[in-house]
Amino acid sequence: MKTERVTLLTSPDFKAYLGAEAAREGLSVAALVRSRCERKPDADEAMLAALAAELRLAVGEAQASLRAGWAEADAVLSELRARRQPALEPAEPSPPGRKGRKAAAGAGT
User: Fold this and answer.
1) pLDDT in tens, 56-85
2) Three-state secondary structure along 46-63?
């Protein structure tokens, strides 16, 4: 027994779509909405829903794995930068006006 009412606001285009679909199936708009909402999913739809759920889990796991990989790569890069930093700093400042060996060797050629 139908005793409850549902009011639905839509765009004019969607209302026209519902009317056309209902007419195509030989139903009222209310019967069309009930038939589409009350029916149980068939085997293909149920399998698709299960696959979509598995895919969501796999994507979440992949994203977590990528984040962990990025964090590990960042840590390695930070460690390499820290090791390289002391090697780049000169032990003693060069006297003013004096060129390094490479610059002096290249100046005579």
Assistant:
1) 999 999 999 999 999 999 999 999 998 887
2) HHHHHHHHHHHHHHHHHH
